Amino acid sequence: MSLICLIIAGLFEVFWSTMMKLSQGFSNLFYSFLTIVGMILSFAGLIFATKHLPISIAYPVWTGIGAVGSVLVGIFLFHENLNGFTLLFVGLLIIGIVGIKLTSGE
After folding, report:
1. Where are the membrane-spanning stretches (predicted)?
2. pTM for the complete prediction?
């Protein structure tokens, strides 16, 4: 249950970072509001997950989901062009997140 909550919290991190981009520097109140709601839900999920998971697992997984998810949103929603090296390092980030989880014993 904690891992599922952590994954959902990571997805809310992707959500709030996307809304922050759409808020255009917090000048659009609707997207600014969604940014804050997403932040609260993301942090709440992380807080819940750290009650049952070690912080050494929960935080890297949470930030990794947010980082990789934000890269994917940038590519597919905002049509950002990333070079091969950037994509290589995103792949390494995914491998690192999976490796942390697999070797944690949790």
Report:
1. 30-50, 57-78, 84-103
2. 0.88
- Please, how many CA atoms are within 13 Å of residue 46, restricted to the half-sphere of its CB? 22
Q: 70-73 long-range contacts, Cβ below 8 Å, gap at least 24?
A: 70/13, 70/14, 70/17, 70/18, 72/14, 73/14, 73/17, 73/18
Cα distance between residue 105 and residue 70, in whole Å = 28
CA gap 98, 100 in Å, rounded: 6
pLDDT in tens, 2-41: 999 999 999 999 999 999 999 999 999 999 999 999 999 9
